[in-house]
Amino acid sequence: MRAYLPSDLDAMVALDDVCFEAEFRFSRSSMRRFAEVQKARVVIAEEDGEIAGFCIVHVERGVPRVGYVVTLDVALAFRRRGLASLMMAEVERLAGEAGCELLGLHVWTDNAAAVRFYERIGFAYSRTEAAFYGEGRDALVLVKMLG
Cβ of 32: how many Cβ atoms within 10 Å? Predict the structure, then answer.
């Protein structure tokens, strides 16, 4: 695992296109903005020079300080091997080092596999946000205390 480099952008966008349906994907400009903003902490998982997955977390200002998981993407060939858990552990560490007391994220209500994954690694339901992903696409807000 390593930190983000600007040269990773095209591979990240391509992976996001594979991982998510069109309405959940980030444009190239959005991905760049999310990965390169000062508050971003990005973990890249790489094998043999290929990006196997990545996770972007933003360290938000406020009290308590919160880390927001923008996205977690894992290539199909690397799923069910513990990579997502390893990347999440690393972003939790980075968020903790940045003073975050809590991690939060949104997940589409119909994405049962993702909900199970996040619950398995310690996230809990906080609330439902109507139309977060657009009309008729509600999101669950999940949170995890750090430390």
Answer: 15
Model pTM greater than 0.85? yes
Q: What is the pLDDT of residues 2-12, one digit of tens each?
A: 999 999 999 99
How far, in Å, CA of 59 to CA of 41, rounded?
Answer: 8
Distance of CA 126 to the CA centre of its chain: 17
The DSSP bridge pattern shows strands 40-47 and 50-60 to be antiparallel
How many other CB atoms sit within 10 Å of the CB of residue 92? 21
How is residue 82 annotated by DSSP?
T
Distances in Å between the Cα of 124 and the Cα atoms of 13, 22, 110, 117 are: 29, 27, 16, 11
pLDDT for 32-68, tens place per residue? 999 999 999 999 999 998 999 999 999 998 888 999 9
Residue 14's contacts (CB-CB under 8 Å, 6 or more residues apart) are: none
Map residue 70 onto helix, strand or coil: strand
Contact of 27 with 12, CB cutoff 8 Å: no
- 28 phi, psi to nearest 5 deg: -60, -45
Query: For position 24, what pLDDT does the model report?
Result: 87
Q: Residues near 38 by Cβ (< 8 Å), separated by ≥ 6? A: none
